[in-house]
Design a protein that fits this description.
Strand 16 and strand 17 form a beta hairpin. This protein has 308 residues and is mostly beta strands. The protein has a single domain (55-306), classed as Neuraminidase (6 Propeller), CATH 2.120.10. It contains 1 helix and 25 strands.
Length: 308
Amino acid sequence: MKKALISSIAALAAVAGSTLALAQTETFSVGEPLGTINEAGVATRMSDNVRVFGSFRFAESCTFDPERNLIVAMNAGVAETMEPNDGYVSLINPDGSVHTSKWIGANRGGLTLNHPLGSAIQNGVLYAVDMTVVRRFDLATGRPLGAVEVSDATLLNGVAVSSDGTVYATNTRDPQRVFKISPDGDTSILVEGAPLSSPNGIAIDNDGNIVVVNIGDNAVLTFNPEGELVNTERAAESGNDGLVILEDGTKYVSSVRFGSVSRIRPGEQTEVIASGIPSAASMCYDSVQNQLVIPMNNHNAMAFIALD
């Protein structure tokens, strides 16, 4: 019995050792567009007359890549208690069909992505906030470019990036803050406390100001780069998450709690352009098709709204 037990332990150790060696030698790679290996052993892309929908696992945010005309969708994956480091990024066609199910996250060679929420694209770089970390990925290859741990962050939720690479990230839980991360990785606090009320969505307007929406109320807050409040507008409902700002200054705000999308045009009354969208989270603007794309969190879906 004792010899059998020792043999079993040795066998398990050998398996564990080989698994560890495999993990150590695995290199980072991205997933390919949907397809299979056919019977002849040839890699075959899915034919153009087939469309696949889905590929989401708690999609919280998206951003749009106009160069490839693709929607970049962030997925948290399964719960951290079930499997840590399960976040991934999908590529979605503008009609909502799947281009690449797991682009970033096809393997974990050199990749850490636990629970990505907000995302943004700037200067060929994809930014994602992941719990208390801001991560960067090369938009062309998907390869990780580095990460910055934000001291005192408890849940980074929304992210916006200026043209010079300065990152602004909301912290939704206490302490309620907007963090500022320089291109060199230096972290500071841009805004703290009221009028922030569970800050969530964030974007940069055409004047370089930082605009934030709250979950706790319907305020749409504009701060200058020094963190001074310069304007307050109101969405139709509270519980807000998504924020899109167009070139003409029009703002779109999605309520993750109540399912509406508000349109705020300069000098005009706020209007509701869509409603009843479950968990309308951190949306993005598809500038080619002129549409809003709204991830729906645990509904594992995306909503599309064509604009006028």
